[in-house]
Amino acid sequence: MIRTVTVVPAVLAESKIEYRKQIEKINNFSRRVHIDVSDGNFAPATTLDVSNIWWPKEWKADIHLMAAYPSQHLDVILKLKPSLCILHAEASEDLLPIFATLRQNEIRTGLALLPSTYPGLVKQYIDYVDHVLIFAGQLGVQGSPADMMQMEKIGIVRSMKPELEIGWDGGANKTTMRALAHADLDVINVGSALSKVDNPTEVYHELVAEIDKNGVVL
User: Fold this and answer.
1) Contacts from 204-210 at CB under 8 Å and sequence distance 24+?
2) Fold of 6-211
3) Is the pLDDT of residue 216 over 50?
4) Among residues 166, 116, 109, 143, which one has the least CA distance to residue 12?
5) CA 170 – CA 147 distance, rounded (Å)
6) Which one, out of 12, 127, 202, 218, has a CA that is 20 to 30 A from the CA of 100?
7) How many CB atoms lie within 10 A of CB 107?
8) What DSSP line would sit under 70-119, residue for residue?
9) If we measure between CA atoms, which residue out of 91, 174, 165 comes closest to residue 133?
10) Which of 70-74, 156-160, 175-179 has the lowest average pLDDT?
11) How far apart are CA 211 and CA 8, in angstroms?
12) pLDDT digits (tens, 9 = 90+) for 108-121
C-alpha cells in the first residue's frame, strides 16, 4: 500500500501573542496544524492554556495534550472540537473512557508514546485509537534533536493495527525528513524547522520535496 505522507506544522507557544504569530506564519502553506498544549506538570514547559487556543475554521487541528490528567481538560476540548485529540499513554488515568467521549463527539482519537514506552504495553489503547504519535524529541520543547531509534516503533505499531494513521513528533527537518518520509509514516509534524525561520513557506516546500526523493542524504 502506497501511503501519502503529510507534513504538518507544529505550534508550541507560551503566550497569546506568540501563538497568533505562529498561526499566521503557517497560514500561507498549511490547512492542518498540530497544536502542543502542556500544563507544566506532565511536561516541564507550560504552554498557552488549552482554553485560549484557536485556529481558522477551515483548518484541521490536531491537539497534542501533554497532561497527566487529560479528563480535567475534556470539557474545553469538546467545545473546541478539533479534528484529532492526542493523549499520552503515560497519563495517570485510564484513557479509554476519555477516548470514548471524544469519539462520541466526532473527534478522532490519538495516542502519543514517549521514547521509553513500548507499544505492546499499551495495546489496549492502540486497538482503540485512530492515530498513534511516535514522540522522539524533548517533551514541551521545540528544536530538540530527533531520537531516530524511535523509528523502530513504527513497524511494531503498524503490525498491531495496519490501518492506523501514524505520526512522528521530534527533530523533523531537512536533514531527517527523507528518512522519516520513507519509514511508513502518515504524518510528520514539524516544529522549529518552520517556526524559527524567516522563510517558513519556502522551507515547508523544501521539506515536502524531500518526501519524493530516494537514496541517502549525503
Assistant:
1) 204/7, 204/9, 204/26, 204/29, 204/30, 205/29, 206/174, 207/7, 207/172, 207/173, 207/174, 207/177, 208/7, 210/174, 210/177, 210/178, 210/181
2) TIM Barrel (3.20.20)
3) no
4) 143
5) 8
6) 12
7) 20
8) GGGGHHHHHHH--SEEEEETT-SS--HHHHHHHHHTT-EEEEEE-TT--G
9) 165
10) 175-179
11) 13
12) 999 999 999 999 99
* Lookup: cell for 75: 470539557
Mean pLDDT, residues 146-161: 96
This prediction's pTM: 0.94
Q: What pLDDT digit, counting tens, does each position of 7-43 carry?
A: 999 999 999 999 999 999 999 999 999 999 998 889 8
The torsion angles phi and psi of 36, rounded to 5 degrees, stand at -85, 125
Considering Cα of 57, then 61, then 65, then 71, what sign does the dihedral take?
A: positive
Domain ranges of the chain: 6-211
Residue 135 has pLDDT above 90, yes or no: yes
Contact 111, 87 (CB under 8 A): yes
Q: What angle do CA 20, 42, 195 make, to 5 degrees?
A: 30
